[in-house]
Design goal:
Elements: H1 2-12, E1 13-20, E2 23-30, H2 36-48, E3 54-56, H3 62-91, H4 97-139, E4 145-147, H5 148-165, H6 168-177, H7 183-188, H8 190-199
Parallel strand pairs: 3-4
Antiparallel strand pairs: 1-2
Helix pairs in contact: 1-3, 2-3, 3-5, 4-5
């Protein structure tokens, strides 16, 4: 329900700022053409793409499907705390006291690490990759136009991958605390784990 509600808001509402003297206020109002999803796409275009690169749609409806994709991913990300809380409420009767305590202790840090992974991906990894690949095309004097749906799916997938990759320390801690894995396992296999992470 939370995911569907957020998707609906992203597809039907728009955000703007109004000045009230010395104060600025964010206002949410209905606007399906300039909705939150399209504002997110515009922000990505302005902050991630090189100046000479434009987004295009090569078939009818690509821009609309890109907005739906952004709305779905945004809905899932924003609703994650609610989803985790519901999953925990469902499985908690089957857990022991110390297992419940471990899960409760990782909920807030997991959200923080997910956001940190998304932040690192958006401000460091994605701009570097796009600029690197753009330079290859430029060296061949190829004019660059990015397909809007492929660009958006690439960015959103990178955000999700890095957000979940940053959960590794918590997963290691939780597995060790619940005694599924001994701490010596991480020490012995640290090199292999690093290689797997680099490949991912």
């Amino acid at each position: 329900i939370a995911v569907i509600a957020i998707i609906s808001i992203c597809m039907t509402m728009s955000i703007t700022t109004f000045d009230f003297g010395d104060y600025k206020m964010l206002i949410l109002y209905p606007d399906m053409l300039h909705n939150i999803s399209s504002q997110i796409i515009s922000f990505m275009k302005d902050t991630l793409l090189p100046k000479n690169v434009s987004l295009i749609q090569i078939s009818p409806g690509q821009a609309f499907s890109a907005q739906i994709y952004v709305a779905i991913v945004t809905g899932v990300i924003i609703a994650l705390p609610i989803v985790f809380a519901e999953v925990f409420a469902f499985i908690s009767p089957a857990l022991k006291y110390h297992e419940k305590k471990v899960i409760k202790n990782i909920l807030l840090p997991s959200i923080f690490l997910f956001l940190a992974g998304c932040f690192f991906s958006y401000h460091v990894v994605i701009p570097y990759i796009i600029e690197f690949l753009y330079r290859y095309g430029e060296s061949m004097t190829v004019i660059s136009f990015f397909d809007v749906s492929l660009f958006i799916s690439f960015v959103m997938q990178m955000l999700m991958v890095f957000g979940f990759a940053y959960q590794l320390p918590l997963m290691m801690w939780a597995l060790t605390r619940t005694k599924f894995v001994k701490s010596m396992f991480w020490k012995k296999n640290f090199r292999y784990i690093m290689i797997i992470l680099v490949i991912i």
